[in-house]
Amino acid sequence: WWADDVRQLHPQVVGLVIGFWEVVDRVVQGRMQHLGDPAFDAYEADQLEHAVAVLTSGGANVALFTSPYFRTGEQPDGNPWPQDDPARVDQLNRIIAEVARRHPGRVAVIPLHQFLDPDGHFTWTLDGQVARQGDGVHTTLAAGTYLAPRVLPLLADLAPQIGRAHV
């Protein structure tokens, strides 16, 4: 699908937001794995490299957004869900940064985690507004309003024909 979109749309910049699906436990190569397992970390990096190859195939630059932290509630025993472990998000963000470093000038990192979780932990509100949906994963419209002036100039800087003057 992405390859078809790239061929049809000819984007100058493509933003890729990943996160929640990457931090949950899942079966890969026949066994349950998660970020922090070396085999899964390598798998995740390979998947991200493939995504970058597809998304840059038409000449676009790619913005890889880091992942914010999640808070999806409690398990029946009262403990947090494994996907809410900040260490998993931190590992994903390290992988995102590593992949971007391998593609200088083509792939940039947008620090979404720093914008949504500025104090280094999950945050429900920003500037007095509710920024996260009740599921602890998705953002609200207020978060979009908060993020736009922070993110859009970074994306514009990745498009050589647009540049910051047109944002």
Main sheet makeup: 3 strands, parallel
**What average pLDDT do the residues reach?**
93
- Rg on CA atoms, Å: 17 Å
Helix percentage range: 40-55%
Bin the strand percentage: 5-15%
Outline type:
globular
For the secondary structure, the number of strands is 7
The main sheet orders its strands as 1-4-5
Quick recap of the structure?
Helix content is 41%, strand content 14%. It has helices spanning 2-9, 20-23, 38-56, 86-101, 112-116, 141-157, and strands at 13-17, 26-28, 31-33, 61-65, 107-110, 125-126, 129-130.
Report what the structure shows:
With 167 residues, this protein is α/β, with parallel strands linked by helices. Helices cover 41% and strands 14% of the residues. The protein contains six helices and seven strands. It has helices spanning 2-9, 20-23, 38-56, 86-101, 112-116, 141-157; strands at 13-17, 26-28, 31-33, 61-65, 107-110, 125-126, 129-130. The strands form three sheets. The protein has a three-stranded parallel β-sheet with strand order 1-4-5, with helices on both faces. Strands 2-3 form a two-stranded antiparallel sheet. Strands 6-7 form a two-stranded antiparallel ribbon. A hairpin with a 2-residue loop joins strand 2 and strand 3 (31-33). Helix 3 (38-56) packs across helix 4.
